[in-house]
């Protein structure tokens, strides 16, 4: 199945999120090398988890580009997790509303595009089945 233009834009945005996670992984490695960590074991575990997450998000982007439904599903879950992190950043004793907005705005826009891509893919599948 060919991906529609909305799906392509969503794939690019999800890929940028994956690249952002990759950059975060590099930043964490630099922090370990600079000795800016309290627990080396925890820091290494966090690096591994962040790298796995980056790989998963990039895989979702590739799948969306290729028109696979599992990529859209995974990316929707990713956007919801980002929105949960943004909500946490906006509330609590150490609230950072600016950081929360910087996380939430692109996640919300990407989520809307992903939902539109799902709807378009559903219409295309229905048209193919009836033809």
Automatic annotation (TrEMBL):
<keyword id="KW-0808">Transferase</keyword>
<keyword id="KW-0418">Kinase</keyword>
<keyword id="KW-0812">Transmembrane</keyword>
<feature type="transmembrane region" description="Helical">
    <location>
        <begin position="9"/>
        <end position="30"/>
    </location>
</feature>
<feature type="transmembrane region" description="Helical">
    <location>
        <begin position="42"/>
        <end position="64"/>
    </location>
</feature>
<dbReference type="GO" id="GO:0016301">
    <property type="term" value="F:kinase activity"/>
</dbReference>
<feature type="transmembrane region" description="Helical">
    <location>
        <begin position="101"/>
        <end position="121"/>
    </location>
</feature>
<feature type="transmembrane region" description="Helical">
    <location>
        <begin position="76"/>
        <end position="95"/>
    </location>
</feature>
<protein>
    <submittedName>
        <fullName>Histidine kinase</fullName>
    </submittedName>
</protein>
<keyword id="KW-1133">Transmembrane helix</keyword>
<keyword id="KW-0472">Membrane</keyword>
């Amino acid at each position: 199945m060919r991906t529609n233009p909305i799906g392509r834009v969503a794939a690019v945005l999800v890929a940028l999120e994956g690249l952002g996670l990759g950059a975060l992984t590099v930043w964490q490695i630099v922090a370990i090398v600079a000795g800016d960590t309290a627990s080396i074991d925890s820091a290494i575990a966090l690096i591994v988890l962040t790298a796995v997450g980056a790989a998963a998000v990039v895989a979702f982007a590739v799948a969306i580009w290729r028109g696979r439904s599992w990529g859209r599903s995974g990316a929707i879950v990713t956007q919801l997790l980002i929105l949960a992190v943004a909500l946490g950043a906006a509330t609590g004793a150490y609230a950072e509303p600016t950081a929360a907005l910087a996380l939430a705005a692109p996640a919300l826009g990407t989520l809307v595009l992903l939902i539109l891509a799902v709807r378009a893919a559903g219409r295309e599948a229905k048209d193919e089945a009836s033809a």
